[in-house]
Specification:
Layout: E1 2-7, H1 13-24, H2 36-43, E2 49-55, E3 58-67, E4 73-74, E5 87-88, H3 96-102, E6 107-114, E7 124-134, H4 139-146, H5 150-165, E8 169-172, H6 178-195, H7 205-216, E9 217-224, E10 227-237, E11 240-248, H8 257-268, E12 276-278, H9 285-290, E13 293-303, H10 306-321, H11 326-333
Parallel strand pairs: 11-12
Antiparallel strand pairs: 1-2, 2-3, 3-4, 3-5, 6-13, 7-12, 7-13, 8-9, 9-10, 10-11
Length: 334
């Protein structure tokens, strides 16, 4: 196996074509985060490298990563990436540690690695899931298949109340509104400050968001009369839309604005050629309300010094189980 590392901005058409073929050859890579467009958009803002893995003269894999703190690395778009890993040919044998060594890095932590990439199983220290909506049979079939109609009844009640008290609803599935995008950023930053979550949109984060939005973004907006109710920025690749940054008007909390927008997006998706909406890793109540299934995700560390990865993962799990505040958990990770 031969590994050559390139700057993400130096990737040629031949490598991009092979990258696309690897994605199309395995549904585990269907997420927009595995598309080269995401890596190249992040590379406009951060230092990003791509390892090209060859075997007997044939490119059998690509591995995008960000150099981080000396000889270590991290996933592309760390803090923003909801899926990552090595893209490789199904027929090839993958040795993750050999790839890491070939890249000249000491280690690579992961927390959104699809479990179907079984080669990383020896390095797993934790598990999670990314809920999704299956819309292949259309919105009506999705609703029929849910069984529990309480969410739909509640949606109808809140919709009527919102229209009666604020104004008629209008949903724009694909918006080019710069004002709506800026409102999304402002609402998310207010949410981070209010909940004590690290503000990923500070220190260049908003610039990264704009770069990825320009490459893959689908901005959707829900209005009630002249009032903006909720804004959603998703990433699209083919038939898959990934719910990335949802935000809503907190003054309209009583109407469940975020949930109303997600139902509107699910209803519009089939006509847009979207058959799956991935809601991202987490157990938020609205995700459980909407989801029809989930993708199992792994957390762990591939590296020359596995003890470091184990200590990091153990500290994270202990802090979560103890209900420790996010700011303290970040300090423990450091």
């Amino acid at each position: 196996m031969n590994v050559s590392v390139l700057n993400a901005n130096e990737i040629g058409q031949a490598e991009l074509a092979r990258w696309a073929a690897l994605r199309e050859g395995n549904p585990v890579y269907r997420s927009p985060f595995f598309a080269p467009e995401f890596t190249r958009a992040v590379a406009h803002v951060r230092d990003v490298r791509v390892a090209v893995i060859e075997d007997a003269g044939l490119v059998v894999g690509v591995f995008p990563f960000e150099p981080h703190r000396g000889r270590a690395a991290r996933p592309v778009g760390a803090g923003f990436s909801d899926y990552h890993g090595v893209l490789h040919d199904r027929e090839s044998e993958l040795d993750p540690l050999a790839v890491i060594r070939g890249c000249g890095i000491s280690g690579w932590p992961f927390d959104h690695l699809p479990a179907e990439l079984g080669a990383c199983a020896p390095y797993v220290r934790g598990r999670g899931a990314s809920p999704y909506l299956d819309l292949r049979a259309g919105f009506d079939a999705y609703i029929e298949g849910r069984g529990d109609r309480s969410a739909m009844r509640d949606r109808g009640r809140r919709t009527r109340k919102l229209e009666r008290e604020v104004g008629p609803l209008r949903f724009v599935a694909v918006s080019d509104s710069a004002e709506a995008f800026e409102l999304l950023v402002a609402w998310k930053r207010e949410q981070y400050a209010r909940t004590g979550v690290r503000d990923v949109l500070a220190d260049g984060g908003a610039q990264l968001l704009r770069s990825v939005h320009d490459a893959q973004g689908v901005l959707s907006v829900l209005y009630a009369g002249d009032e903006t109710v909720a804004v959603h920025l998703g990433l699209r690749c083919g038939a898959v839309l990934h719910s990335w940054f949802p935000a809503y008007n907190t003054e309209l909390n009583r109407y469940s604005p975020g949930l109303l927008l997600m139902f509107a997006l699910a209803q519009a998706a089939p006509a847009m050629g979207i058959t799956e909406i991935d809601l991202g890793k987490g157990e938020a109540r609205y995700k459980q309300t909407l989801a029809t299934g989930s993708v199992e995700l792994w957390e762990g560390y591939v590296g020359r010094h596995p003890l470091a990865g184990r200590l990091r993962s153990s500290a994270r799990r202990v802090a979560r189980s103890a209900g420790v505040h996010r700011a303290v958990r970040r300090a423990l990770r450091r």
